[in-house]
């Protein structure tokens, strides 16, 4: 078997594993975006869904760890804003809006990269649990893809954040 044949076989294996995780939009969107990022040696590419939906897009793609990190950062920023601009409601609103817009832009720019990192971590965990390709693909279909339940979970997490901030700063 030639070196090119082996490389092609490995690329096909990786593509089938990635497609099992991503699902429907792998070949039409993510594979193209990730290839462009690799060619340009960049971690950024634009994702309109991630920009407009931010946290809810993360939930839709089952990236809960990022949601909790962002909510923790929001709480920290809220605390800083509360301490720095206490009593100035207009200032608090401007700062909160700026943070929200910053999140939207960052998610739009880095969403595809974050999703790739998330996918690679899930592939790594799955490969550690079984070497059988069919089992890996089945496990990755469950771990990956899209989830409206993930969006609902994100809404619930966000409501929890609102309750916490209301109790602490309300």
From TrEMBL:
Keyword RNA-binding: no
Record keyword Chloroplast present: no
InterPro entries documented for this protein: DUF2628
Keywords: Membrane, Transmembrane, Transmembrane helix
Superkingdom to which the source organism belongs: Bacteria
Transmembrane residue ranges: 44-60, 67-86, 98-115, 148-169
Protein known as: DUF2628 domain-containing protein
Protein source organism: Alkalihalophilus pseudofirmus (strain ATCC BAA-2126 / JCM 17055 / OF4)
Species classification: Bacteria, Bacillati, Bacillota, Bacilli, Bacillales
């Amino acid at each position: 078997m030639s070196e090119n044949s082996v490389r092609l076989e490995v690329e096909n294996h990786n593509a089938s594993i990635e497609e099992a995780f991503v699902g429907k939009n792998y070949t039409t969107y993510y594979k193209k975006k990730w290839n462009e990022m690799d060619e340009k040696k960049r971690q950024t590419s634009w994702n309109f869904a991630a920009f407009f939906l931010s946290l809810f897009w993360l939930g839709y793609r089952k990236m809960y760890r990022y949601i909790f990190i962002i909510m923790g950062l929001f709480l920290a920023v809220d605390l800083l804003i509360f301490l720095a601009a206490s009593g100035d409601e207009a200032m608090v609103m401007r700062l909160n809006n700026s943070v929200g817009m910053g999140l939207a832009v960052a998610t739009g720019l880095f969403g595809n990269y974050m999703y790739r990192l998330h996918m690679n971590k899930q592939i790594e965990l799955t490969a550690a649990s079984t070497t059988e390709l069919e089992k890996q693909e089945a496990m990755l279909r469950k771990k990956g893809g899209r989830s409206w339940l993930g969006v609902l979970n994100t809404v619930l997490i966000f409501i929890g954040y609102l309750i916490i901030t209301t109790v602490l700063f309300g």
